[in-house]
Amino acid sequence: MPRTDSALPSPTDVSASTEQGAAPVGPVRLGPDAPAALRPAAAEVRTGFWHARREVNAHTSIPQGPALLESAGNLHNLRLAAGTAQGEFQGGYPFVDTDVYKWLEAASWQLARSGPPADGEENSPGPRELAAEVERIIALVADAQQSDGYLNTWFQVRKNGERYQDLRWGHELYCAGHLIQAAVAHHRATGRDELLVVARRFADHLDSVFGLPGSGRPIDGVDGHPEVETALVELYRETGERRYLDLAGYFVDRYGHGLLGGEAYCQDRVPLREAVTVEGHAVRQLYLLAGATDVATETGDAELRSAAERLWRAMTTAKTHLTGGLGAHHDEEDFGDPFELPNERAYCETCAAIASIQWSWRMALLTGEARYSDLIERTLYNGFLAGVSLDGESWLYVNPLQVRDGHTDPGGDQSARRTRWFRCACCPPNVMRLLAGLQHYLSSTDAEGQGLQIHQYVTGRYRGDLDGTPVTVSAETDYPWHGAVSLTIEETPWERPWTLSLRIPQWCHEYRVRCGDRTYDQTDAPVTDGWLRLERTWAPGDQVVVELGLEPRLTAADPRVDAVRGCVAIERGPLVYCLEQVDHPGGGLDDVVIDTARPLAVRQRPDLLGGVTTVVATGRRRAVPDTGWWPYRSADAGPAVAPSGESVELTAIPYYAWANRQDGSMRVWLPTS
Amino acid sequence: MPRTDSALPSPTDVSASTEQGAAPVGPVRLGPDAPAALRPAAAEVRTGFWHARREVNAHTSIPQGPALLESAGNLHNLRLAAGTAQGEFQGGYPFVDTDVYKWLEAASWQLARSGPPADGEENSPGPRELAAEVERIIALVADAQQSDGYLNTWFQVRKNGERYQDLRWGHELYCAGHLIQAAVAHHRATGRDELLVVARRFADHLDSVFGLPGSGRPIDGVDGHPEVETALVELYRETGERRYLDLAGYFVDRYGHGLLGGEAYCQDRVPLREAVTVEGHAVRQLYLLAGATDVATETGDAELRSAAERLWRAMTTAKTHLTGGLGAHHDEEDFGDPFELPNERAYCETCAAIASIQWSWRMALLTGEARYSDLIERTLYNGFLAGVSLDGESWLYVNPLQVRDGHTDPGGDQSARRTRWFRCACCPPNVMRLLAGLQHYLSSTDAEGQGLQIHQYVTGRYRGDLDGTPVTVSAETDYPWHGAVSLTIEETPWERPWTLSLRIPQWCHEYRVRCGDRTYDQTDAPVTDGWLRLERTWAPGDQVVVELGLEPRLTAADPRVDAVRGCVAIERGPLVYCLEQVDHPGGGLDDVVIDTARPLAVRQRPDLLGGVTTVVATGRRRAVPDTGWWPYRSADAGPAVAPSGESVELTAIPYYAWANRQDGSMRVWLPTS
């Protein structure tokens, strides 16, 4: 049973035992010489919206992982590879090991933020049980590794050890990448190196195998699914071994040269440095971009940085759904063409949302610009969070923006209905690892030690390091339900001015910030690059109160987004809203129009979906007369099915909370006539 | 080189040598006791629109077939199965034999309509060469057949003769179906039985293998891809063997009972008799419905007929694109949900258009209602004909209604660019067989011998049989470019009244029909069930002149078709129009809006695309300012990108003719603001 915020002591998100100064125990710990604008700061989430989601993750999703990995056969496969079990390989994909690795990463971040259990604390399973599970599974992984460092159960068991014969589909380096990320997480979080040793051996093996012709390495090639690039940069960061960074850079630059057959699907149509838009399989593109950004961050490669900035903009301007979801095609899980953003067939894989957050965070650090965290916020609250049910026990692989009346669900991984686990179970442990490490995406300090930036607003504490001196800012907020955030300076250098930078969200057009005797608003505030910058000589106890206007709003799209012409969406703060069938008895949702002239009302609904704020609009139902057998008619004849006078109250719920009640239709975009 | 209409003698479409009375040499030759409303009549196409398309089919597409089947390996596979060649099986699908069978069917109809070559006639390759190719390939097929009648090269060569182990994916009965259809065509067209013998042996084998538990047959099962049902009914019609009809009926009714795992994809989710809408893989659904309608037509099964009528209506009201195209999803080639009719991702497989025409023709005969031929006309001129290039040498597998500016084409079978041949080459020979047999979808007589119905207007001759007495009506028209059709009674019974029924197209709201001293129009005409019925005692030389109003028109969709909200399409007569990039230099198509208040102009363009009528509209280009990195904005702020004042002449070409010039964007539906 998840503990409630009030009844039990809060866990400490920043584990004192593993913190080194203020450097956060999380992903993207930049190398000491990385010429990035920002460095991640530590944060903890004490109560509130994300705390609740993370509690479910900690107490339901993550603890259920080992049993699900056992029943799906992932752990069995490791035993087969180790020779400690008999039987058939389980699962139909060569990348099933990554489900284990992503779970290990999630559990590692969880161990870091949980800290040791307090005496008598009920924590089911508490850090001890979780730590034991992690140790047990790491041992399975270590046992499965071959003597030269290679590790992939599919190829060891199913393919008789044939390696690197099918880089396009084999996912061997993709698996290595997730193993490395898990190992880095485990080492950072616990200080233990059982898994890091395994990962380094694999990475060393890869470094002996892959390289340019003439490098002495036998294979000049890349993996059909990028992932190892960003992982290798993290391994460099954790170990200081420059050759891991070099290997990552080699991989990043070998895409787009036809080594995989030249298809966009595998990111092989055009080199990243020359690309003008994101394309192909969305998750592959995004992981590759995360890796390329990592390389640019550590090396200062300006051309690579420029490509990343260009592609991020191409993605957000023309290939991103309102929810932050990415990937327009089910077929080949492809990004689709510019402004091709369908609703019912939006693919918007949960993993793509996660990859987008990971990439954007790297861009935020590299550039210092707030818009990257604008997209992170939007994605976190919408396209990402919809991927897991409120109870943490079932999942969506795809995240459509519409389910039609009369929808026939195909079932399977790409169902519009929540599923307990997937045949291709990439998304659930990916959600777990992001939620478990979420505190690492919230704040930063700038490279010059001039200040602390707050990227996301939570109740908790942000802690940075300014030239060796800690600064700590605590925050209280009921965001995103309420727009007020109270910030208190807790630690600050003595009589040394520094800048507290607050992200003014891109969606926010009315706000007020009070700081001492000054009040700023949207007409008069020191905002640059999306940051409201407060340079002060701070004293402990100083307060800053941010009030972000949360009036619900109607949003329209660029007219080139054909799928939503003549429609609006309801948004409030960072939340995208949707209608669900269950709230609208007496008819479907496909015959509803919204009356945009009528006001939107806000209702606090603690009873609903774990406690949400709904937005209530006024609409009408179209009468749908029998138009014969052909649904197309003369445009001169006027609408064949005029809206009737029947007024309907439209109750919009946050998109992230959809599909937690009975099956039915859903829509984000609402026709206006 | 295709011969032109004027320079060379016209071929005779109805081959005197193989006609038996007025019964047409074509598909769907109803059994003598079939309780259908109509029976197909014979027709010939002498000049004009369809004649030109059929000439290309006869002189380019069909003659190129054998070489393409040889280079793709289909013929090689037959030799492998026969043991007369060595090597690897070619092609990655278990249904590659059907490409051969469909080509044989096409060539057979072609032989029937060509008749013997006139002395000295240049006919490249003429009937003699074509007949020799047909004989040669039939011999390959016969050689490949196993002693008990089984024939499938994939299973014989690749699967060591393992049969019926994988009915869901194996396509063994699907292949049998196409073989049977080819054999029936060959027998009807030429009177020869070399292929019919092969087909009957296979059908007899199937009849010994498949049946209900307790029937003495070892397997109670159906094929994952319906097709054999309609073929078996045709075999019954050709041979009089009732057990083929019974076997077809058995198969029709065994879908929907979980024998294939219960998925909609394979038509196994729900029995056809209980289904409320079309679903799953579009071609599978349509072939099954054609077979079911065949069974209902021959047996008088009222429940099955009722299901077919219900499903046809469910399809046309909510799951048919404006072009007649069917299948909304690339993924699983699925019908999609009601009113889910995307433009750029419309699948609209060419084979689905063909299957729709085949099914609707059976419905037209069964019921006597003209709307089925309305859909046939729409599909023929649009969704079907777009599948083949104007030169008959390249093909579209999918037929989208939009190609975006900035489209990245994936290549392969599902490309929006024409392809010389496909890896899965189902569509090209399917187009060939429909075009070669098109004359059989044009006219009918009613079961009571009361009259002749003209379903489609061509220049040529319609010939029916009224209780043993021939009636012949000749027609002259430049349809669909001009709306006038002049009909002349050539043969008629002496002083016996009969009814000439003319289909008034569903799209046509203004027309005039002159018959002797009477003139009818849309305000006053004896129209029932879509037929204008002229009952007269006719004399040779009597004339009827039909004038169908061809004013270009703007068409809107049911508002539940979200994909085209706020858009119109240009249509003229049976033709759907589209814009192509090549006609609109200086910008893309995604920033164009049409001004619906301005008139549409019609231009005859003999120079363009083999001679077309274009429709010219007035539009504007939207200015597209930089809206920042996020394409969504407050709905209150008004359009961020208002149409500029720049007026653009929009030149619309018939949809069937798109993708015959340079690659670029295309769209059927045009935003109005």
From TrEMBL, chains A, B:
Signal peptide from the UniProt entry: none
Residues annotated as domain Non-reducing end beta-L-arabinofuranosidase-like GH127 C-terminal: 552-671
Protein name: Glycosyl hydrolase
Domain Non-reducing end beta-L-arabinofuranosidase-like GH127 middle intervals: 452-548
Domain of life per record: Bacteria
Membrane spanning residue stretches: none
GO biological process, one term: carbohydrate metabolic process
UniProt cross-references to InterPro entries, sorted A to Z: 6-hairpin_glycosidase_sf (IPR008928), Beta-AFase-like (IPR049174), Beta-AFase-like_GH127_C (IPR049049), Beta-AFase-like_GH127_cat (IPR012878), Beta-AFase-like_GH127_middle (IPR049046)
One Pfam family named in its UniProt record: Glyco_hydro127M
Region Disordered, annotated ranges: 1-34
Domain annotation Non-reducing end beta-L-arabinofuranosidase-like GH127 catalytic: ranges: 45-439
Residue spans of biased composition, Polar residues class: 7-20
